[in-house]
């Protein structure tokens, strides 16, 4: 039984590559709720930083809300397994200017859902595609 539903229309950030199917099978969805008037600053910082995250083909897409709840940003990432997820997240801190991106974007976040990690300035979910998914990783 459906208990609740939320609809949003999203636009893709222009600086992200076009979404492509990934080998997955682990997907990470991060949700950031920004303070009013900060979307352009957020986009400008990520336009510089995303090139470091696209090197490993893990960045699937970056989107922001157009209708519904405004100032919400979604980042979707793909990893081959939980070990590569952990390695890539930790390796980001060794990349040039990544710490600057975090320094300038964390203050723009208005709300953080502490789910499942309490110290992240976002809501984060790890997802597995279902068997009927068009993603190659959806195959049994």
Write out key terms for the chains shown.
Protein NipSnap homolog 1-like; single chain; 140 residues; Dimeric_a/b-barrel; alpha+beta; 6-stranded antiparallel sheet; 27% strand; globular; NipSnap_domain; Alpha-Beta Plaits; NIPSNAP; 6 strands
SSE arrangement:
Elements: E1 9-12, E2 26-34, H1 39-53, E3 59-67, E4 72-79, H2 82-91, H3 98-105, E5 109-111, E6 123-127
Antiparallel strand pairs: 1-3, 2-4, 2-5, 2-6, 3-4
Domain NIPSNAP: 27-114
GO cellular component, one term: mitochondrion
InterPro entries: Dimeric_a/b-barrel, NIPSNAP, NipSnap_domain
Structural write-up:
It holds the Pfam family NIPSNAP. One of its GO terms (biological process) is sensory perception of pain. Belongs to the NipSnap family. InterPro entries: Dimeric_a/b-barrel (IPR011008), NIPSNAP (IPR012577), NipSnap_domain (IPR051557). Helices cover about 25% and strands about 25% of the residues. It has about 140 residues and is an alpha+beta fold. The protein has one domain (about 20-130): Alpha-Beta Plaits (2-Layer Sandwich), CATH 3.30.70.100. Helix 1 (about 40-55) packs antiparallel against helix 3 (about 100-105). The longest helix is centred in the first third of the chain and has 15 residues, at about 40-55. Mean pLDDT is about 80; it is low at about 115-120.
Radius of gyration: 15 Å
Beta content comes to 25-35%
Any low-confidence stretches, pLDDT <50, length ≥5?
Answer: 114-121
* CATH T-level fold name: Alpha-Beta Plaits
Shape: globular
Order of helices and strands: EEHEEHHEE
> CATH top level?
Alpha Beta
Structural class: alpha+beta
InterPro entries: Dimeric_a/b-barrel, NIPSNAP, NipSnap_domain
Family: Belongs to the NipSnap family.
GO biological process, one term: sensory perception of pain
Organism: Phyllostomus discolor
């Amino acid at each position: 039984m459906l208990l609740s539903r939320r609809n949003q229309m999203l636009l893709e950030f222009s600086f992200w590559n076009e979404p492509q199917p990934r080998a997955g099978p682990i997907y990470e969805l991060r949700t950031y709720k920004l303070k009013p008037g900060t979307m352009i600053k957020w986009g400008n910082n990520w336009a510089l930083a995303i090139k470091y995250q696209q090197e490993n083909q893990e960045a699937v897409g970056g989107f922001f809300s157009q209708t519904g709840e405004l100032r919400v940003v979604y980042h979707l990432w793909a990893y081959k397994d939980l070990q590569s997820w952990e390695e890539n997240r930790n390796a980001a801190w060794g990349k040039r200017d990544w710490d600057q991106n975090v320094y300038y974007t964390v203050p723009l976040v208005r709300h953080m859902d502490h789910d499942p990690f309490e110290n992240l300035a976002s809501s984060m979910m790890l997802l597995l595609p279902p068997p009927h998914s068009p993603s190659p990783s959806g195959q049994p």
